[in-house]
């Protein structure tokens, strides 16, 4: 699952004590394990090795350039959703041909930047967007490749904000419209529509929706081909599960077992856009306990990290396993699960310092007794943790540290007060 483990009651990221990192860098801090990133990427690459596969790591999940650099070196392409993410990829020498660009609201500037960079595929979400791409591509004398985003109307059990593959969403076009889009634009000299894109959502824990989506898309591909169109690639998007609790989601190999047999010998390149399945378990957020207080029957543990640092619990009611970075041997967690209640644990709310009811990380959660100054690790915080953080309450964003074996390096320094006001001067 990852390389964050307790040794004699002290939490380590690979071979580095997280307490030492806190001593050097302060808190809150995101700590990433390079080996975990690379492990997850390699498992995906291996699981699909029977097909021609392009793995495009989703930059928005965790896009620090130092992370993108070693991911590119390990053969990853990138799924981007903005010009800023393209800039990040280009900064580290990522191969533009292995970049896919999704998003319902690409601006002209972003499209031109992507055309100039020569990205692999524009994932197009509507006819209006396609028309605009055609106009801009003509001006640049480029013929970009287009993957049409189709939504296969597959039910995908997750938080309501996180499903994107049903009919009534702003994402993509339905299957009948897809046929028409290919008929209208399939021969267009300014763009090369030659692929289909599906992204069902995120946060699911099952393989079935992917298998169901492929089964719905394959007849569409056959139909398009029979009408004389080229379909060279199928982009299955992201949304593969991550272990927020120990061993609760299918492995890359298990997803592949469902998907690969359907796509073998179909003459299709497979594109995958994993985000959290690569990076969620590769990061923790370390925060310090500021105060412990009682309110009515409740005990609150107030931390120096807030919802501006990690918004997933507030936004999605997301579960993160939270545990002290140093514990007595009897409290070393065997498994990171929501119902872990070891003898001697207290039930508490773990909350941030921000004046919002939503500023919490866990409610009614069992935790070994902690006091002011103790460090808490928020596990599986690598995905949509730092990347969704903000300066709300004029709080500088946290530092990011990358661990590689015995060494750790600051890959993003903590923001200062000067950083906060610099754009206003
Ligand atoms: C966000 C996103 C992803 C990554 O999703 P995960 O759940 O992190 O795997 C992939 N593709 C697209 C189009 C996305 O918007």
Could you describe the 3D structure shown?
This protein has 425 residues and is of the alpha/beta class. It is 28% helix and 24% strand. The protein has helices at 18-25, 34-47, 65-73, 83-91, 108-117, 127-140, 175-185, 208-226, 252-263, 276-279, 312-316, 417-421, and strands spanning 4-7, 10-13, 16-17, 29-33, 53-58, 77-80, 99-101, 121-124, 145-149, 192-197, 233-235, 269-272, 283-295, 298-303, 322-324, 346-351, 360-367, 375-378, 399-404, 407-412. The strands form three sheets. Strands 4, 13, 14, 15, 16, 17, 18, 19 and 20 form a nine-stranded mixed beta sheet that branches. Strand 10 (192-197), helix 8 (208-226) and strand 11 form a beta-alpha-beta unit. Helix 2 (34-47) runs parallel beside helix 9 and helix 5 (108-117) crosses helix 6. It is globular and about 70 Å long. The mean pLDDT is 95. Bound molecules: pyridoxal-5'-phosphate. Residues 58, 60-61, 79, 81, 102, 199, 202, 237-240, 273-277, 383 line the site of pyridoxal-5'-phosphate. The site of pyridoxal-5'-phosphate has 18 residues, from helix 10.
């Amino acid at each position: 699952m990852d390389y964050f483990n307790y040794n004699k009651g002290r939490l380590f990221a690979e071979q580095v004590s997280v307490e030492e990192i806190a001593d050097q860098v302060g808190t809150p801090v995101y700590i990433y394990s390079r080996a975990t990133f690379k492990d997850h990427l390699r498992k995906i690459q291996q699981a699909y090795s029977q097909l021609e596969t392009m793995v495009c790591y989703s930059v928005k999940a965790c896009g620090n350039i130092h992370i993108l650099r070693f991911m590119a070196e390990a053969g990853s392409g990138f799924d981007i959703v903005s010009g800023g993410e393209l800039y990040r990829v280009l900064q580290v020498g990522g191969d533009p041909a292995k970049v896919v660009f999704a998003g319902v609201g690409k601006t002209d500037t972003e499209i031109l930047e992507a055309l100039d960079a020569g990205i692999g595929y524009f994932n197009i979400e509507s006819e209006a967007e396609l028309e605009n791409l055609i106009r801009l591509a003509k001006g640049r004398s480029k013929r970009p490749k287009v993957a049409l985003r189709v939504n296969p109307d597959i039910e995908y059990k997750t938080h309501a904000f996180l499903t994107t593959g049903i009919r009534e969403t702003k994402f993509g076009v339905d299957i009948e419209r897809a046929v028409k889009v290919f008929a209208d634009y399939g021969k267009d000299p300014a763009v090369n529509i030659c692929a289909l894109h599906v992204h069902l959502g995120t946060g699911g824990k099952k393989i079935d929706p992917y298998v169901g989506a492929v089964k719905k898309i394959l007849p569409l591909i056959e139909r398009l081909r029979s009408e004389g169109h080229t379909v060279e690639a199928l982009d299955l998007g992201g949304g593969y599960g991550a272990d927020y609790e120990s061993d609760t989601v299918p492995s890359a190999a298990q997803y592949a077992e469902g998907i690969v047999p359907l796509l073998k010998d179909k003459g299709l390149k497979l594109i995958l856009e994993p985000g959290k399945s690569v990076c969620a378990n590769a990061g923790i957020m370390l925060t310090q306990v500021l105060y412990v207080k009682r309110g009515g029957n409740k005990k609150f543990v107030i931390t120096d990290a807030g919802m501006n640092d990690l918004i997933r619990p507030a936004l999605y009611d997301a579960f993160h396993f939270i545990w002290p970075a140093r514990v007595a041997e009897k409290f070393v967690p065997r498994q990171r699960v929501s119902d872990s209640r070891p003898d001697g644990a207290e039930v508490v709310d773990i909350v941030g310092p921000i004046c919002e009811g939503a500023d919490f990380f866990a409610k009614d959660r069992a935790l070994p007794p902690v006091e002011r100054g103790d460090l808490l690790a928020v596990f599986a915080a690598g995905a949509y943790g730092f990347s969704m953080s903000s300066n709300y309450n004029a709080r500088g964003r946290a530092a990011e540290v990358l661990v590689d074996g015995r060494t750790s390096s600051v890959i993003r320094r903590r923001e200062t007060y000067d950083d906060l006001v610099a754009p206003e001067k």
